[in-house]
Amino acid sequence: MLEVFLEANHYINEISKKRYAFTGPPQPIKMLNLVEHLKKCKTDIEAEAVAVSMKQNHELMEQVRTFIDRVVIEPRGNLPCHFIAYPENHSFRGRQETLNRMEDSLKPTLGEQKCYAFNFRAIFWIPAQTSGKLEQGLLDAAHQLGIVDSSAMVDQKSGIKSFMTWLRSCKEPWLIVFDNADDFDALKQYWPSMSSGSILITSRDLSALQWTRIGEEISSMSAEDAKEMFFSAIEHHIPRSETNERAAESILQEIGHLPLAISAAAGIIAETECDLADFVQLCEENAHQPDLFAHMTPDFRRIDYDLTLETVWNISLQRISAKSMQLLSILTYLDPDAVPVNLFQTGGRSHPEIGHLSKMTTWLQISKELRKHGLCSTANIYVSFRSDSTDSELTAPGISVHRLLLQTVFHRCSSQEKQAALDFAVALLKAEFPKVSDDKFRLSTQWKECHILLPQVEAVLSRCQNSNMAVLVDLVPILCACGRYSVERRSFSDAERLFSVAQQVCQDRGLQDWELAQFVQRSLGSILLESSAFRCEEAVKIFQGVVTRYEKTLEPDDHVLGITYSDLAQALAAKGEYDKAIALCRRGLSIIESIKDNEIRRDNRFHIHHNMARMYEMKRLPDEALRLHLYEGDAQGNGLRQEQSVYGAWNLYAVAIETHMKALKIRHTLFGDHYYTAISYHKLGELHLEAGSLQDANESFRVARQILSDPMVNTEAELARTLWYWSMVKDKLLETEEAAKLRKQAMTIRNTLLGEKCVPASNCSSADFDEIVVYFNR
Q1: Residue of higher predicted confidence among 130 and 18
Q2: Picking from 158-162, 302-306, 414-418, 453-457, which range would have the lowest pLDDT averaged per residue?
Q3: Which domain of life is it from (predicted)?
Q4: How big, in percent rounded to 5, are the helix, strand and coil portions of the chain?
Q5: Using CA of residue 611, residue 616, residue 620, residue 622, what is the dihedral sign?
């Protein structure tokens, strides 16, 4: 720069000494060369500055990621917390020595009594037959404990992680029961680290012993305990005399002192009002009936089960009414642990042949008859979510049936009876499950219903698979709802499995509702694309097939076709074919513009523009990406959670935190500490706040505030919003002074922007600050 100045000064001095009549002064060649050299130096310096900035931002991002990975949050639980599926059995008798020894392997009834007998500050009863039931039980326990936000957008994996962290860090005595553990691979993933807790496993699989130092096989009761249980159950019908004592000993010896058989025998005596001698005769008459357990494998068959339950169940199943037997046959397709009573009382209206189940009088008669015969028991179904900022807890009554009895009933049924029972079970579920479609597939307002009903659908699929029965076409809409629910709960392996079953049914059975069939395909493609970067070829193939079908069957301006173009575009972008993807997005936009509903048109335009902006980022075209983000995007900056803005979000927001972490890395490289990078940090902070990851949220809001505090950028509205949300995090971290300071700063900016004076923070909410951002970006 100095050389240019000196040369310019020299040139001016020289030409001022002469007069130029015709040609004018000579060109300042040397000075021009110096200027060009200066321009080149400027370009080099700017490039180096950008490189340094990129490196610094990248290092900052890596530090943030390392910090987030390192932080272990220790959530606080609300104690005492007793999460037990079954009510306390006040008629429980015997097994005192077993209870006192604190064994790690107990039958379910014993496990229940152990839970109630000891003074644990926290007790969690977790069904563990399958990975799905295990994960659902752990998430329910986290909700009951109060360590995750009961929000409709809580991440299932995040909730389970918080629960496992709580178990590790809790200093109070806790007990967790893994009931009926059959899937030990799944159990291995969620085995708690011991601190001050105890673990019980109930299982029929002897390999459960590998998980514990102590195990005990629980079979028959002692003769004295069996007698106490028997007479306590029949005390209102049979007096305890010396004659009856001898008769009872004979009966109990015959049925092997098994609690399940004792309960069933007592139910028969109470129902028939017979004396003990008459009951002995009943047993003799039914001792040579066809083998109820012939269908079982030799490993599963037990000689004491064969000789005892076969006898008493033969008596019970022959004496119950046709309606009770029909209910048992339906229950063979449903979850043995707990079926919600409401499923029958409301869903029963969906089919004329089971309409009687919806009538309270009939239902009470049937359930009472089954309980009296010892064929079923009551259960509690717990689920808790938050809706419209109001905590809503639901403990639904349920009915439970022993698995061995369900197996027995199922194999007693004829092929025609089995098919009829399957039809009834599916009809019940179809009547209760919410319907999903291209226009309405968001289920967050119905998570409670889905949460309760999903185990029933899993049971239907399991029964059909194990019995080589075809899955009904009517189950496809239910599978779609279950799949969408699993997607929203961030359980993608379950979602893929459910949609894959639906896809197979569509292919095998020829689904008449072709729109639903394409919905299945699109949903499956989105899940494949989200689950792995290495599956984009599969997703492209699926989406291309849907597009081809839609182009042949839909009108050219149908908005569903436009959305599907965007789906295919995202799959192509995952392959790196950005130009094709952007061209498809533009085709989709041209169709979306024809939507008459302003709200639907706006939301779909936003998501396609948002997707295109991501593609431009990947192409390293930051100017166009920023233009779309800032001028065609969502001014509020929280579109990932808008209920009506979800078409494009399936692929982009399915694992929102991971997606935004990846996007932030690109944006730091392209934009540095730009306004839009700060908005992304704010989004990430909100997601962490919702998931209960308070330290992560704290760091994200800190970085967002740091960028938005730049006085050269007009970001007061966004800064106020970030400060307000950050104060919420500080409150949850019990940093009350810092929270109050941030809240005061947010309110000062807000009042200045709106021209208001001294509006107290108690009159404001996060929604107010969201609206300010929308207003100043309108």
Answers
A1: 130
A2: 302-306
A3: Eukaryota
A4: 65, 5, 30
A5: negative
Residue 671 C-alpha from the chain's centroid? 34
Residue % of the chain over a pLDDT of 90: 13
Question: Using CA atoms, how far apart are residues 703 and 727, in angstroms rounded to an integer?
Answer: 14
Conformational region of residue 532, where left means phi above 0, alpha means psi within -120 to 50, and beta covers everything else: beta
Segments of 508-581 assigned E as strands: none
Tell me which of 355-364, 399-408, 575-584 is least confident: 399-408
Strands ordered across the beta sheet of 377-387? 339-340, 390-400, 377-387
Q: What is the mean pLDDT of the chain?
A: 75
pLDDT score recorded for residue 306:
47
Cα 518 to Cα 399, 502, 506, 512, 585, distances in angstroms: 37, 11, 10, 11, 20
d(CA 152, CA 147): 15
Determine the average pLDDT of the residues in 587-599: 86
CB 380 within 8 A of CB 87: yes
pLDDT at site 665? 55
**What's the pLDDT score for residue 501?**
92
* Homologous superfamily (CATH) for 81-211: P-loop containing nucleotide triphosphate hydrolases (3.40.50.300)
Nearest residue to 61 (alpha-carbon basis) of 692, 670, 522, 549: 670
Residues with Cβ < 8 Å from 640, sequence gap 6 or more?
649, 652, 653, 656, 683, 687
Question: Rounded to a whole number, what is the distance in angstroms from the first to the last CA of the chain?
Answer: 45
Token duo for residue 286: 């039914």
Considering only the top CATH level, what class is 656-778? mainly alpha
